[in-house]
Amino acid sequence: MRILVAFIVGCFSFMTHAQELKGSVVNELNQPLEDVYVYNINSESHTHTSENGVFISTNTKVADSIRVRLLGYKTRTIQVENTTDLKIILEEKTFQLDEMVITEELNPVSTISRLDLKLTPVNSSQEVLRKVPGLFIGQHAGGGKAEQIFLRGFDVDHGTDVSISVDGMPVNMVSHAHGQGYSDLHFVIPETINKIDFGKGGYYAQEGDFNTAGYVNFKTKDYLKESSISASAGQFNTLRTVGLFDLIENTKNQNAYVALEYIATDGPFESPQNFNRLNLFGKYVIYSPENDKLTLTASHFTSRWDASGQIPQREVNNGNITRFGAIDDTEGGETERTNFNVMFALTSY
Hints:
Number of strands: 20
Number of helices: 4
Radius of gyration: 25 Å
Helix content: 10-25%
Shape: elongated
Number of domains: 3
Strand order of the largest sheet: 15-16-17-18-19-20
Distance between the termini: 34 Å
Strand content: 35-45%
Structural class: mainly beta
């Protein structure tokens, strides 16, 4: 009797195992793709890939047809030949707006912001924050100070009531002299940003104490498609240069790159701002044979500036100073930040 029961249980386990498809989705550079929609046409079940590009599809057996889809990539429909270690390669293509379907299973507003970031690239960390709908910022006391944030009419000061993180690392500074939660995002090089996740309101306990008006989480790129150098110049002695350098030939097993940014400007004020900023950023990603992911990031940021300060309207009205003048042009400051971050993500297998 025991042998019969064991045989039945074994057969059931085998059948259950056979109903489960395990695989991964990568792009043409052999890089894992996250949030890929994997749909079984026969059983009408579906799933999405994890951060490591892996997925597990239940109710899937050999000979089933699955459709794999991700915005910005060609949709593929394949027939399952085996239920283990299936590897699917998606080919990149031009994004078409009519392909986008919003569902509650993914964060729709974050998806839209990711598309916006891809279609309209930014060149400053301030513009990265503006990708969050309903959020706008203001700057005072020079470009080296963290921006004043407003979220749907909520005065967040310099980050006091919005939780901000980059690659899971908190940006808000506890017990800062200029305000609890002070968040200087200037250490971020915008060309390295790959994804923006955000939420409005204090409904997300996992985001911590600063999530009063909402949260904004940034994720940097795991790899570069190619190395690049760019430079731009404008009025008021403005200069910005950015360099992105791929250190390891793109493979699924490991990637590494460094990014550098330098900005300088005098601003439109009568007293030159003498502003400059230097950013250094490096990232290394390695995958284990089981698709576990280890990420190491390091960055250093330094900046100094002179500021014309906040001026009283009455002094402008009576003609003592112009709109671009100063009461005390010795204001300003120096700031810097150094980060080192280690993350380990287990595969969903």
